[in-house]
TrEMBL record:
Transmembrane segments: 12-34, 105-126, 138-161, 203-222, 261-287, 307-333
Domain ABC transmembrane type-1: 99-326
Keyword Signal: no
Main location: membrane
Name assigned to this protein: ABC transporter permease
Gene Ontology MF annotations: dipeptide transmembrane transporter activity
UniProt subcellular location: Cell membrane
Membrane topology per record: Multi-pass membrane protein
InterPro entries: BPD_transp_1_N, MetI-like, MetI-like_sf
Organism, as annotated: Plantimonas leprariae
Length: 342
């Protein structure tokens, strides 16, 4: 055995870079094999052949495939993801404006789902086969089975249209749009930095329903996995010994169970967070949320390949980064993983 060193860290970073290169190849191939016609999306279906050929040459689609990939790769290294047909802006600018909205609602959702799902899963395991366990399993099953868009529509009908407890579609009411300077892109943060409490509470009013809908789907998965991890640990000798010594359930959870399931939960939470950032597409459409999901959907409708591939690339990079960070978290939460086989 040997201690975990910088060389091992470099190896993991190298694996991350290889995965990133594979993702780049994958997105490039998708852009070339899909039936969508990027040239037709620019010049229109009724353009004459000369204009069509000129635009094809301008986009570099008349070049050999390997040369096209090299141009694609070098452009990415310079931060150039192309120009969006949908808006006429650089794709990087559009994504920079759209992604914070997705990040905001997904982050709030993962916080809510963790605060509810982890304790609920532990309670279900501690009181196995009781009404608490059965209730937790039913709640998790419903959240896992029913589509998010159905929850979103029902939520809008009940809590917005009928009870008026939450805000409607969008991040804020129309009369408040554009009043807060976008410093971070996170409206809740920006409104607080600007001291605009009216916009802040209005944004809270709007975000609570889509975040709760997303949180419920993630909570279902987190609850099930936490219950499984806890049940596995409850059968271990150290828990039996702690109970024999008269330790309370609270002490067993805080001193014994939580540290031992934390490593496994890191992966679950990382996967859930990535899924929320990706799965926000449907929620953003239902709630007219101006995030990356709605942006990609609108781009897909008109065959805007630059926007579609850039969004796919961003989501893929996020997943890889979360997995990489969860691996690093292992080293902090479980010292045993700091040793690897020589």
């Amino acid at each position: 055995m040997r201690e975990f060193t910088g060389a091992e860290l470099a190896k993991r970073i190298g694996q991350l870079l290889v995965s990133l290169f594979v993702l780049l190849v994958f997105t490039f191939v998708i852009g070339r094999v899909l039936p969508a016609d990027p040239v037709g999306a620019v010049v229109g279906e009724l353009a004459d052949p000369a204009a069509y050929a000129a635009m094809r040459a301008r986009l570099g689609l008349d070049l050999p495939l390997l040369q096209q990939f090299w141009i694609y790769l070098t452009s990415l290294l310079h931060g150039d993801l192309g120009t969006a047909i949908l808006t006429g802006n650089p794709v990087t600018k559009d994504l920079g404006e759209a992604f914070p909205a997705t990040l905001e609602v997904a982050t709030l959702a993962i916080i809510l789902s963790t605060l509810i799902g982890v304790p609920l899963g532990m309670l279900a395991a501690f009181f196995r086969d009781t009404w608490i366990d059965r209730t937790a399993r039913v709640v998790a099953l419903v959240g896992h089975s029913i589509p998010v868009f159905w929850f979103g529509i029902v939520g809008l009908v009940i809590f917005y249209a009928t009870l008026n407890w939450v805000g409607g579609p969008g991040r804020v009411d129309v009369y408040l749009e554009g009043l807060v300077e976008p410093r971070t892109g996170l409206l809740l943060v920006d409104s607080l930095l600007a001291g605009d409490t009216e916009t802040f509470w209005n944004a809270v009013h709007h975000i609570i329903l889509p975040a709760s809908i997303l949180a419920y789907s993630a909570m279902a998965y987190i609850t099930r996995m936490t219950r499984a991890f806890t049940l596995e640990q409850l059968n271990q000798d150290y828990v039996v010994a702690a109970r024999a010594k008269g330790a309370s359930n609270g002490r067993i959870i805080l001193r014994h169970l939580a540290p031992n399931i934390a490593v496994q939960l890191v992966t679950v939470l990382a996967i859930s967070y990535g899924a929320l950032l990706e799965g926000a597409v449907v929620t953003e459409i239902v709630f007219s949320w101006p995030g990356i999901g709605q942006y990609m959907t609108n781009a897909l409708m008109i065959g805007d390949m630059n926007a579609i591939l850039a969004g796919t690339l961003v989501i893929g990079v996020i997943f890889m980064a979360l997995n990489f960070l969860s691996d690093l978290a292992y080293l902090v939460l479980d010292p045993r993983t700091r040793e690897v086989r020589a």
